[in-house]
Amino acid sequence: MINELRLYLDTSVLVSCYFPEPFSDEANGILALARRPAISPLVELEFASFLARKQRTGDLTTAESYRIEDRFRAQLDEGMYTRLPLTTEHFQWARQSMWRSTLPLATLDALHAAVAALDGRALTTADRRLAEAAEDLGVKVLTVGFGETFEVHEAKATYGA
């Protein structure tokens, strides 16, 4: 079933594929089954921010953070991920979602939801708040780390409805 879904990975899932998290095995399992899951420049930026923060706090050495970044870049260059651009349309969708959402939605989370929605992908996340808000906005969601194995949540609404 996962290999039939078109996935968009948010940063919480991507990070867990490169840095040990409680749900890393689940995230890596999804990655192994998925065909070229998508990421955006926002995910790339947040991934770099995560590595830099781990380096500053001493959870990673400089060498370790560079090794992880190099591995990610190599896999990106090899085509493991589909790189989706961020466009004006994504920002418009995200801005409109701020008014449409009945749940709290962070600005960058709205952009993640927009990328997934506009490309017809399931937003794959370990962030419960993002998952709930995205569902509320009509985005298909695949949750990771919620104690549910590969749980796909169908959209509750449709954008523009």
Write a concise synopsis of the structure shown.
The protein has helices at residues 11-16, 24-33, 41-56, 62-77, 88-100, 107-118, 128-136; strands at residues 7-9, 38-39, 82-83, 122-125, 141-143, 151-153.
Describe the structure.
The chain has a single domain, classed as 3-Layer(aba) Sandwich (Rossmann fold), CATH 3.40.50.1010. 51% of the residues lie in helices and 11% in strands. It has 7 helices and 6 strands, in the order E-H-H-E-H-H-E-H-H-E-H-E-E. The strands form 2 sheets. A 4-stranded mixed sheet has the order 1-4-5-6. A two-stranded parallel ribbon has the order 2-3. The radius of gyration is 15 Å and the shape is globular. The relative contact order is 0.18. Residues 155-161 have low confidence and may be disordered.
SSE map:
Layout: E1 7-9, H1 11-16, H2 24-33, E2 38-39, H3 41-56, H4 62-77, E3 82-83, H5 88-100, H6 107-118, E4 122-125, H7 128-136, E5 141-143, E6 151-153
Helix pairs in contact: 3-4, 5-6
Highlighted features:
disordered C terminus, Rossmann fold, about 160 residues, alpha/beta, globular, two-stranded parallel ribbon, 6 strands, single chain, about 10% strand, 4-stranded mixed sheet
- The topology string of helices and strands comes to EHHEHHEHHEHEE
Catalogue the unreliable spans.
155-161
Number of domains: 1
CATH class annotation: Alpha Beta
Average pLDDT level: 90
Q: Strand order within the widest sheet?
A: 1-4-5-6
Number of helices: 7
Query: How many β-strand runs?
Result: 6
Q: Span from first to last CA?
A: 28 Å
Shape: globular
Radius of gyration, CA atoms, in whole angstroms: 15 Å
**Main pleated sheet:** 4 strands, mixed
- What is the H level of CATH, i.e. the homologous superfamily? 5'-nuclease
What would CATH call the architecture? 3-Layer(aba) Sandwich
